[in-house]
Amino acid sequence: MEQLYDELYKVVLVGDPGVGKTNLLATFLANEAVNEQGISRSFSSVRKATIGVEFATAIVRHPNGKRIKAQIWDTAGQERYRAITSSHYRRASGALLVFDVTNHETFNNAQEHWLKELKAAASLSSTLTSCIMLVGNKVDLESSHAIQDANYVDQELHESTATTLGLMHQRASAKTCHNVRRAFEDLVIAVYNADKSKQQRTDVVPVIQLESTSKSAAPNNSKSTETKCC
């Protein structure tokens, strides 16, 4: 059977309920199809909260030509489901840490709860801690009025916080498809690069030079057993 992908990685979506995690995933999977009003065909303003955990798969093409299969897990944000989602973090290679740019509390929770939970669950061999993207969703709601609101998280604060925490960052809109594909693809490619870099470091075997203990062979003093010719 023809191989459909070269590598497989697990990516998780985390963040408070209502920040748009499921809509981001739906927009990405719909290949950013929009209607006449420029709104994602998969977007829903009344989407029900995800119960438990759901996942979907997508293929991302790396610049080197490799086909990377991403298993993208959409985890519920409600308190009562956190025990369920934490069991899935351990095998994750990357994460989209999502907040709502019009809700500062979701931005704080991304740092104070979700990021800590991700890092606590990451294994030493995982690329997870180095492949987390802080995504500010709902930029379609940005307006002169919204920007003046104390709850608004501006781009400068978003980017400076991500840089301080060592995270990737992106601002997006699940509704208009703005930067949705870029966010997912950039993260998956970063996971692939981090994994290959880690493998290369692991494959390097230090050369240990051993002192030679071999001795020269002693001369053979045994008598010849050849029969002399008469």
From TrEMBL:
TM annotation in the entry: none
SMART domains, alphabetized: RAB (SM00175), RAN (SM00176), RAS (SM00173), RHO (SM00174)
Please indicate which superkingdom the organism of origin belongs to: Eukaryota
Task: Output the Gene Ontology terms for molecular function.
Answer: GTP binding; GTPase activity
A Pfam family hit:
Ras
Family (UniProt): Belongs to the small GTPase superfamily. Rab family.
What protein name is recorded for this chain? Uncharacterized protein
Q: What lineage is on file?
A: Eukaryota, Sar, Stramenopiles, Oomycota, Peronosporomycetes
